[in-house]
Amino acid sequence: MAKQFRIAPSILSANFAKLGQEITDVITSGADIVHFDVMDNHYVPNLTIGPLVCEAIRPVTDAIIDVHLMVQPVDRIIPDFAKAGANIITFHPEASNHIDRSLSLVRDLGCKSGLVFNPATPLSYLDYVMDKVDMILLMSVNPGFGGQKFIPSTLDKLRQARARIDAYTEKTGREIWLEVDGGVNAANIAEVARAGADTFVAGSAVFGAGKDTDPNRYDSILSSLRAELAKV
Fold first, then answer.
1. Does residue 1 lie in a domain region?
2. Alpha-carbon distance 91 to 144, whole Å?
3. How far apart, in whole angstroms, are the C-alpha atoms of residue 109 and residue 114?
4. Is 32 a catalytic residue?
5. Tens-digit pLDDT profile for residues 24-65
6. E strand segments, the chain
7. Is residue 22 in a domain?
8. Is residue 87 part of a domain?
């Protein structure tokens, strides 16, 4: 069976004056997931969007909303995003005092849970919580800003994460998604997929395409990403 690949444009790079339309257009053009970057100017040096924006876009799309929390502490804000319509909530292990409890909180609220690993964060945080993780997200840039270049050492880390997931799936039958975020584009997405990723966050590569006035402006970039993935 061919591997299923998912493309998750990050709305961090979208036009916020037309956010609902941007999301509709990009999903209509073939994206699978809405990636929602939450930054608090504390855990990372930037300030972005919160639960109110998630709540506002929820009626606009049936697509999965994948909320990536770059905030510290995480437990206080998790229930707000669950209530606002998030489907997946991921957070950084460094931002939680009790990782197991935070993952359980996400699941108890009806969402899929995940851990996010910065370029220098070891995968050993997964050792005792694989049963509570639905997604592993590897950052291929240092978080905080869009438009950065892919860090090549992420490829080895992806291979290690894929090996962990495959061993776990073989033992339990349960699948875990492996997402990558940062500097992913048509030039490198195939290489990233070969290293083991199945879900790809692309921000500026997608939302930087075409003119605002063309509802089909994302067709060609998403087609080119799919075409590269088809080679894997």
1. no
2. 14
3. 14
4. no
5. 999 999 999 999 999 999 999 999 999 999 999 999 999 999
6. 6-9, 33-39, 64-70, 88-91, 112-117, 135-139, 177-181, 199-202
7. yes
8. yes
65 inside domain: yes
Q: Which of 37, 40, 66, 198 is catalytic?
A: 37
Longest dimension (CA), the chain: 50
> pTM for this structure?
0.96
Instruction: Provide the residue type at 86 as one letter.
Output: A
Residue 170 belongs to domain spanning: 6-230
User: Which residue shows structure tokens 């509570």?
Assistant: 132
81-119: burial string, b at 16+ Cβ within 10 Å, e else: bbebbbbbbbbbbebbeebeebbebbeebebbbbbbbbe
CA distance 165 to 63: 25
Name the β-bridge partners of 38: 69
From 25, 66, 181, 198, active-site residue? 181
Query: Tell me, what CATH number does 143's domain have?
Result: 3.20.20.70
| Number of domains the chain is built from | 1
Structure tokens, 69: 């929390």
- 62 is an active site residue: no
Closest by CA to 49, choosing from 11, 20, 87, is: 11
Asked if 109 and 79 touch (Cβ cutoff 8 Å), the reply is: yes
145-164 per-position pLDDT tens digit = 777 899 999 999 999 999 99
